[in-house]
Amino acid sequence: MEFEKDNTFFTGRLKSMGFALRGAVKLLTTEHSVMVQAAIGVLVTAAGFYFDISATEWMFQTLAIGLVLSIEGLNTAVEKIADFVHPKFHEKIGFIKDIAAGAVFFAALTAMAIGAIIYVPKIL
């Protein structure tokens, strides 16, 4: 099957959304790091309902969850491309993959800081 670009605005956007949804499902069902991050997102969402957090806190929490999952997805894409381009270990590929993982680390630290700002006062 050959790819043919859909030049109409509406159907093109629908197809793009379908590809995005398929990618999100692939991430959630095949990547363990994404599964863990998504499970943490579900837990803090439940905590948000339990502690009745404010609209502003919901906004920051939702942004943090989305940030981590998005960066985790980009990291996975970088790793898959790097493995495709150079399947065996290569120092430069390892360096690139480490940088992508570092971006996830920064996103996760940011999310943990946001979680601490929201929940530590409520728990104490």
From TrEMBL:
GO MF: ATP binding; kinase activity; metal ion binding
Active-site residues, as the UniProt record annotates them: 72 (proton acceptor)
Cofactor: Mg(2+)
Transmembrane segments: 34-53, 99-120
Sequence positions that bind a divalent metal cation: 31, 79
One GO cellular component term noted in the UniProt record for this chain: plasma membrane
Residues holding substrate: 72
Residues the record lists as binding ATP: 31, 79, 97-98
Predominant location category: membrane
Subcellular location, record wording: Cell membrane
InterPro entries: DAGK (IPR000829), DAGK_sf (IPR036945), UDPK (IPR033717)
Record's protein name: Diacylglycerol kinase (ATP)
